[in-house]
Specification:
Blueprint lengths: L1 H18 L13 E3 L5 E2 L2 E10 L8 E11 L4 E3 L3 E5 L7 E3 L5 E10 L7 E11 L2 E13 L26 E11 L9 H4 L2 H15 L3 E11 L6 H25 L6 E6 L3 H9 L6 H10 L3 H10 L1 H10 L1 H4 L1 E11 L3 H10 L6 H8 L5 H14 L4 H13 L3 H14 L4 H13 L3 H9 L6 H15 L2 H8 L5 H9 L3 H10 L5 H13 L3 H14 L2 H6 L12 H7 L1
Parallel strand pairs: 6-7, 12-13
Antiparallel strand pairs: 1-3, 2-3, 3-8, 4-5, 4-6, 4-9, 9-10, 11-14, 12-14
Helix pairs in contact: 10-11, 11-12, 12-13, 13-14, 13-15, 14-15, 15-16, 17-18, 18-19, 19-20, 19-21, 20-21, 21-22, 22-24
């Protein structure tokens, strides 16, 4: 009887002790290590690996513990990652088992989609323990600070990307050529009256007169070349062509005298015009012309050439009738410079009477000013007056892009592509506008159609995509030697701080971001003075940089620095 009572009492006590098992207590922060720490935003994600341990004689044999990484922001927001489950050694399940006596180590991956509020935050592990049907919490443990978000400084704007215009084809001076031929009879050098009445010669003389009277026209040159056909021998043809040149020169100088103008005539003669002969023969329908052309290539001596050609009696008859007469000539070539409107005239007309300008002049007018508003106004007139020209839409779109109006820029680039879907400039510009609005897939599609835009230009945009995707080494390679904020950012993120310093000092138009990046380089290289100088310039350009610095983990150790505080206050 007594023995039975003893056993019953023992069983009851065992049940009581089991039911009242001591909860698992707080874990020491030294048990945990997080990589990276502080956390870092890469490719729009915040990823970390937390390693830790449960110490010896800690993990209850009949308990399951759920461990959840939680990122807590300074504003009170919480972001939870996927939890991991661990179980005591007497639990039947598929979770990692932890021995009571030996304890155990573990590793948890934490992943969050980055939002700006995470810039000032802390990563905790939260623990929820369950034994039988009872659940309690183990005190949470801070395991990392967060979040360095320097990679998010990649900027898609006019300071980092050039939106190329499609250039005008304006030429202030356009060269215009006018030819006239005076033909001669075989073995004669005198100029026949009928030749002097030919429309082409009369027109050429009239053009000289017009140039004299018109300020927008100037004679750039007057060339005279006299020829003899290759039949008849070199000696005879030399004398003949020389006399033709002399007679023609005398005639043209008399005409110039009548016009009361003085021009230098560049006069030359060619004894035997084999070059002209070959050109005319090649374009003719003469039988055996290929044989004759081979003869020309086989013999360099003029006498031998003529002899061999005359041996082809049937062909030579056609040559003498159709080819040789065209070679007995003096050729006059007048070169005129047509002088267009001055810059002052074009700029004024673009504002007051745009309809009086052609499209090239109007597009050129936009290049005469650095004022974005004036440029935009001119491109709007191009769109209005020349709606079928891609350049008005594309070039106006570049202004809107540089002003940060990406939606309007996209609309204009789409208009340009509706006119010319293969335009490298319009495709590239549509791509950077899409990128600026966060549509990476669409931007890459446009970039694929902009192959002729030039490697360096395209690489600047691709470099931004690589930065956003977290491939910093590839971004650095894409930027190459470009002196932009984005190029320097890629160097900072690949820890090439010397190169970043050099790039930032070479930025053509440094702005607040340039200075802020310099401050980051200073913070990462323990150059306190560079931190101060860079932040001072950044804040002077825009107070937003002071606000950003207060939550930027890059400057965490400077937030208690009085000099730094005075700069950002």
């Amino acid at each position: 009887m007594k023995k039975g009572l003893y056993l019953l009492s023992a069983a009851i006590l065992a049940f009581v002790f089991a039911s009242c098992s001591k909860p698992m207590g707080a874990l020491d922060p030294s048990y945990f290590n997080t990589t990276p720490n502080p956390l870092e935003a890469v490719g729009g994600k915040v990823n970390a690996t937390v390693t830790g341990k449960f110490p010896e004689k800690y993990f209850d044999k009949k308990t399951v513990v759920e461990v959840t990484p939680v990122l807590k922001t300074a504003s009170g927001q919480e972001f939870k990652s996927t939890p991991a489950l661990f179980q005591g050694e007497k639990i039947q399940g598929n979770n990692q088992s932890v021995a009571y006596k030996a304890g155990g180590t573990f590793s948890i991956n934490a992943a969050f989609d980055y939002v700006p509020e995470m810039a000032k935050s802390e990563l905790f592990l939260e623990f929820k323990a369950t034994r039988s049907n009872k659940t309690y919490t183990i005190p949470s443990v801070k395991v990392a600070d967060g979040v360095i978000a320097t990679s998010t400084l990649a900027a898609v704007d006019g300071d980092n990307l050039d939106a190329p215009i499609v250039n005008d084809k304006f030429q202030r001076i356009i060269k215009e050529k006018h030819d006239a031929n005076i033909m001669f009879l075989i073995q004669q050098a005198n100029i026949r009256k009928g030749e002097l009445k030919k429309e082409e010669l009369v027109s050429l003389v009239q053009k000289i007169q017009a140039a004299k009277e018109n300020e927008s026209m100037k004679v750039a040159g007057l060339d005279l070349n006299s020829y003899a056909s290759p039949d008849g021998g070199v000696k005879l043809n030399t004398k003949l062509s020389e006399q033709r040149e002399k007679n023609t020169n005398t005639y043209i100088k008399k005409e110039l005298k009548k016009l009361k103008t003085s021009l230098d005539v560049n006069a030359n003669f060619t004894a035997q015009d084999w070059e002209g002969f070959q050109q005319l023969l090649s374009s003719s329908n003469i039988q055996d012309k290929e044989v004759i052309l081979r003869v020309l290539s086989m013999y360099s001596d003029p006498e031998q050439r003529e002899h061999e050609i005359r041996n082809l009696s049937a062909a030579f008859k056609n040559i003498a009738q159709d080819i040789l007469p065209q070679l007995r000539r003096s050729k006059l070539q007048l070169t005129l410079d047509l002088i267009g409107k001055s810059d002052e005239q074009i700029a004024k007309l673009a504002q007051e009477n745009a309809k009086s300008l052609n499209v090239e002049e109007l597009l050129y007018a936009a290049t005469l000013t650095n004022d974005a508003s004036t440029k935009a106004g001119i491109y709007e007139k191009v769109v209005d007056l020349f709606p079928g020209d891609i350049r008005g839409y594309n070039n106006l779109g570049t202004i809107k892009f540089n002003q940060g109006n990406y939606a309007e820029a996209s609309r204009l680039f789409a208009k340009a592509l509706a006119i010319d879907s293969k335009s490298p400039e319009a495709n590239y510009n549509a791509g950077i506008a899409a990128l600026a609005q966060g549509d990476v897939a669409k931007s890459q599609q446009y970039f694929g159609n902009a192959g002729n835009i030039g490697g360096n230009t395209l690489n600047q945009a691709l470099g931004i995509i690589y930065l956003q995707q977290g491939d910093f080494a590839k971004a650095k390679s894409a930027f190459g030697n470009a002196a932009t904020n984005n190029a320097a950012l890629s160097q900072i993120l690949t820890k090439d701080y010397s190169a970043a310093r050099s790039t930032l000092s070479s930025v053509k138009n440094p702005n607040g971001e340039t200075a802020y990046l310099q401050a980051i380089v200073g913070a990462r290289t323990n150059d306190r003075q560079l931190v101060y100088d860079g932040m001072r310039k950044a804040v002077a350009s825009n107070k937003k940089w002071a606000t950003k610095a207060t939550t930027d983990a890059e400057f965490a150790k400077y937030l208690t620095d009085s000099d730094f505080q005075n700069i950002i206050k």
